[in-house]
Design goal:
The chain contains 4 helices and 19 strands. It is mainly beta.
Length: 260
């Protein structure tokens, strides 16, 4: 099942709705987003709605260096336990919205990633405990990074959290087998990254259990599971897509930010 957040494409429409996307129709849903839903019976053709980012997370937890070849391409060692940082929730944008390159950075990179979306609050999961009851599903995430500022600062707070630096979506797939996930990044129609969840140093279930012992994961929270090798800079005018078969394509144009 594919879950989405949307607005009706009508002038002045401001009501944010939740829905289930089936073929080219969106069926409105109610309940505790995104963990427990039922259909209201109303539906619209996909052409009459505008999809929003599928969740508004209380936190976005990112895993650094979770693929050996990506750690190596930046000259980093593989961490002895998961290495995490937080990305500001205000950096989230939907599929189709523009990634704005800030004047503060001379190098803005894409990072295509598989993202876990939490459906039900979870904390302190035990070793081997099943994660599935706590998940809403999976989506695509672009962990846009000001690479020069990441190096300059040593900490990731600034480099990862500029407004528009977290394209997320287009939908949450609830029946996704993360063990089979293949993550691709395309820039202007050319494939730049392709990786498989099988290459992750810390797999999804271990990451969720490990994180839940640090911080309570809340419904709508997002865990970005790291990027495969093949990162490179974006330029104004590019179109970048994160594609994960079974979920969809997260497509965003890139522009230079024009500050007043
Ligand atoms: Zn990343």
């Amino acid at each position: 099942m594919k879950l989405c957040r949307f607005l009706l494409s009508e002038p002045g429409e401001k009501t944010i709705r939740h829905g289930i996307l089936e073929a080219d129709r969106v069926h409105q849903a109610q309940g505790d987003w995104p963990g427990s839903l039922s259909r209201t019976g109303e539906s619209w053709p996909l052409g009459r709605v505008r999809l929003l980012a599928p969740v508004t997370p209380s936190k976005i937890v990112c895993v650094a260096r979770n693929y050996r070849k990506h750690a190596a391409e930046l000259g980093n060692a593989v961490p002895a336990e998961p290495l995490i940082f937080l990305k500001a929730p205000s950096s989230v944008i939907a599929a189709g919205e523009t990634i704005e390159m800030p004047p503060d950075s001379a190098r803005v990179d894409y990072e295509g990633e598989l993202a876990v979306v939490i459906g039900h609050a979870c904390s302190r999961l035990g070793p081997g405990q099943a994660i599935e009851p706590y998940l809403a599903g999976f989506t695509c995430l672009n962990d846009v990074t000001a690479r020069d500022l990441q190096k300059k600062d040593g900490l990731f707070g600034r480099a990862k959290s500029f407004d528009t630096f977290c394209p997320l979506g287009p939908v949450i797939e609830t029946e996704f087998d993360w063990k089979q996930a293949r993550i691709e990044t395309w820039v202007n129609g050319e494939r730049r990254q392709h990786g498989s969840a099988a290459e992750m140093i810390y797999p999804v279930d271990e990451l969720v259990r490990w994180l839940s012992r640090i911080m309570t994961l809340l419904p709508g929270d997002v865990i970005a599971t790291g990027t495969p090798e093949g990162i490179s800079p974006l330029a104004a005018g590019d179109v970048v897509e994160i594609a994960i078969e079974g979920i969809g394509r997260l497509r965003n144009p890139v522009a230079a930010r024009s500050d007043p």
